Amino acid sequence: MPIWTSEAVDIDCPDLTHQLRKRLLHYRGINVAEDEILVTVGAQHALCIISTLFADDERPIAFEDPGYQEARHLFHLYRNRIAPVPVDGSGIDTRQLPVEYKLVYTTPGCQFPSMVNLSEDRRDELLRAAERADAFVIEDDYEVGLLGHEKPISALKARDQNDRVIYIGSLSKTLSPSIRMGFIVAHRDIIKAAKIVRSLTVRHPPSIVQETTALFLAHGYHDVHLNKLRETYSQRWHIMRTGIERHLPMFSRGQATGGTSFWIAGPDHFDARKFAQQLQKRGVLIEPGHIFFHEGTPKNTFRIGFPSVATAKIDDGLQIIGEEAQMNLI
Amino acid sequence: MPIWTSEAVDIDCPDLTHQLRKRLLHYRGINVAEDEILVTVGAQHALCIISTLFADDERPIAFEDPGYQEARHLFHLYRNRIAPVPVDGSGIDTRQLPVEYKLVYTTPGCQFPSMVNLSEDRRDELLRAAERADAFVIEDDYEVGLLGHEKPISALKARDQNDRVIYIGSLSKTLSPSIRMGFIVAHRDIIKAAKIVRSLTVRHPPSIVQETTALFLAHGYHDVHLNKLRETYSQRWHIMRTGIERHLPMFSRGQATGGTSFWIAGPDHFDARKFAQQLQKRGVLIEPGHIFFHEGTPKNTFRIGFPSVATAKIDDGLQIIGEEAQMNLI
């Protein structure tokens, strides 16, 4: 039954949860019941709910370092302590998890901002560690369906035998960030508690957004759009890689094999903030990487995103970055 | 410029804020600039933002008793202390405000759940008291435009010379609760801070909801709908009052002259919860009043709402309430 105009505090649009399960979650290898999904006002709201839900637990939140700074700010806002955990070419370093923690925030599909895939071994270790610590793993699958990795890996949630994973997905990267459509997948007890926090924060996500999104998915428009996006992004990713090898030999690139941005490091003394300012004058935008680090350092990394750069302009942009880098005597 | 598909963390839909100012705020006597309004995911989200924003201030939140329980729960969720302040026939009793408080939560237009108007004297005193205490007044104008009082009074915000009032409005009661359209009106410094909290909680309210609501308002549909609602509710209110006098002489009714529900009290020993259960068996729903009180007592009050009761059925319903009351030997 559609819920276009009625209040919907207790129940999400059934067509929407059906479509999310069928079109997005199955694709990510996740098979859950309807009462294990909760619709939110975008992924940020999902994080807000979890941040609030676990605020009373004194243990820290283990957090990828570098990691998604908006999540870190949100956890701080609700007085959660953060325990940074280093990231390497295989993703979050599970050997360096703290002894005690309530949650570990991760982006296994495409570590943000380094874009590496969490290795198979680390995935298993992460789940075992959470079980030992009596903690939960937040899997922020922010690029759901977009990964473009040569060998796509199912979500961590897909191998979660003990309900330790709280999965967060959204349509922001594939459909539009403006509709604010996100969702949490977790054990039904967590979903039940999350629904109470949701009702206190916004009562429920707008019904009109739920119903229109359900229709958009049901008619297959999202699948078609997603395939086009994947094709475009995959093409751009390869142009980026080739261009970086050609124009930016003075920098080192991470080991990522997919994602919608590249994570680049300069020599130790390199200041990416200054570099970003210089590039901006020439019409090229890069994102200095220090903001993703717990301590705000090092300063020598930056991120180049390409979803909003026309394919034909990518190589020119990289050439400008290379020219500026040479002038800076890197 | 419409923002249908773009992310809108920093700016709200300009057409929407224009329409809210022109069609709703001016009607309530409020004239503010665009940077003094912030759109939220319904009034609950507005309260969530304020609750978060003031959480670090150790002083309590003064709170109408009885009062809107969802706001009380929300303030508790974010660790704010509550100082209950009694309500009488003139609204919140400003003489009983605590010495220290950071916020006072009020519903001046139509005190919830007693439905009384905050008197002129109390309005002035509330603003003076807030100035003395260096505190802010939350004006939850939840029935914006619907009041139906014989002598409508402008919003408290309209007489706020010192930017002490944080006004909250929504379209939930007039248009639909399902769209989750709310807004905060306050000093631009508060709006600026609120926008940061908003971005951390949901990033921004869905653009599609902002744009469709702006269009709905701009075309005058909301005005027309509001006038119809006012007419219907005013008619029902008078039928309710007449029916209560006829069928419920064993109860006492508050001094409200408007609103969309009636606040009724039985004798001291009367148990409204049991009474509600009995009435439910006969197909009549009332809301026991203890949930609105800080301490969960007294138990002898209840609320009868009429927005979702057909006009023709009101008198029959009241008659059933009267019959049941007589059988309970009240």
Q: What is the assembly state of the chains in this entry?
A: homodimer
Task: Label the overall shape of chain A.
Answer: globular
So, the CATH homologous superfamily of the largest domain in chain A? Type I PLP-dependent aspartate aminotransferase-like (Major domain)
- Rg of chain A, Cα atoms, Å: 20 Å
Which stretches of chain A are low in confidence, meaning pLDDT under 50 for 5 or more residues running?
none
Q: In DSSP terms, counting alpha (H) and pi (I) runs of 4 or more, how many helices of chain A?
A: 9
Q: Provide the β-strand percentage band of chain A.
A: 15-25%
Count of the domains of chain A: 2
CATH class of the largest domain in chain A: Alpha Beta
Task: Please state the second-level CATH architecture of the largest domain in chain A.
Answer: 3-Layer(aba) Sandwich
User: What's the helix-strand series of chain A?
Assistant: HEHEHEEEHEEEHHHEEHEEH
How would you portray this structure in words?
- The structure is a homodimer of 330-residue chains.
- Chain A has helices at residues 14-25, 42-53, 69-77, 120-133, 188-201, 207-218, 221-247, 272-281, 314-327, and strands at residues 37-41, 61-65, 82-88, 91-92, 103-106, 136-140, 165-170, 181-185, 252-253, 261-265, 287-288, 301-305.
- The first copy, chain A, is an alpha/beta fold.
- Chain A folds into 2 domains: 14-219, Aspartate Aminotransferase, domain 2 (3-Layer(aba) Sandwich), CATH 3.40.640.10; 223-327, Aspartate Aminotransferase, domain 1 (Alpha-Beta Complex).
- In chain A, helix 7 runs parallel beside helix 9 (314-327).
- The longest helix of chain A is centred in the last third of the chain and has 27 residues, at 221-247.
- The radius of gyration of chain A is 20 Å and the shape is globular.
- The termini of chain A are far apart.
